[in-house]
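Collaboration report, partner site 2.

Our partner group contributed sequences for two proteins of shared interest, and the home lab folded both. The records are reproduced in the order in which they were received, starting with the first partner submission.
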Amino acid sequence: MNKDIHILFGLRIKELRVRAHISQEELSFRSGLSKNYISDVERGTRNISLKAISKLADGLKVEVKELFNFSK
């Protein structure tokens, strides 16, 4: 795994969000996180907390472990 964990995590969040056909704004509403925060996470520039990871999983309606499935 050559890519930084922040980049891989951000790409996975974006992949799940796009697959769910929702915008960053909608994910922001569903997760209670700001749109700018979600944008930062997706770009890999945010050091995300466990609490925010849980909120993203809830917003995307997936289990937390699905956010870390980088094997694709």
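Second partner submission, folded after the first:
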Amino acid sequence: MTTRAATTASAISVRPARTGDVRAMQALIEPYVRRRILLGKELVTLYEAVQEFVVAERDGELVGCGALHVLWEDLGEVRTIAAAEGAVGKGVGHAMLEALEERARALGLSRLFCLTFETEFFGRHGYREVGEEIVDDAVRAELLRSPDGGVAEFLDLAHVKPNTLGNTRMLKQL
């Protein structure tokens, strides 16, 4: 899967991440962690989840990454979208989100969730703020069994509240 978007400088190419990209992905994510926009990811966690990620390249350089995590049969979460400092506002996030949504559709998902500070960005892409429960009680009971911290954040569990303060819950129907 490759998605291309034009920028003022040159084309952005989005492709599935490979293990050789993981250290560069961590370097892209780290400035957002320092600014408390994204949660830090251990290197081992990124390697374990590499198949969930896409990366954006421009002129052979990695300029962005983002992930799609399946939560349930019809529901996924867009996670860890990060663009290099010089690439912000140049279509990198848009290209990655488009690729992740394409991947979600291919998997049969009909809804995408995100927990974000970037409400304007996601709003421009059709996501809307949600406050209500996104899943019914039976699905919630199943999701409570997941050891994934992101699922706990999705469920808005008390023990992850420090991670989610100030974030907005958003949802898009595909």
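Feedback sent to the partner group on the second submission included the following. Strands lie at 3-5, 12-16, 53-58, 61-72, 75-83, 111-116, 128-129, 168-173. The chain has one domain: 12-173.
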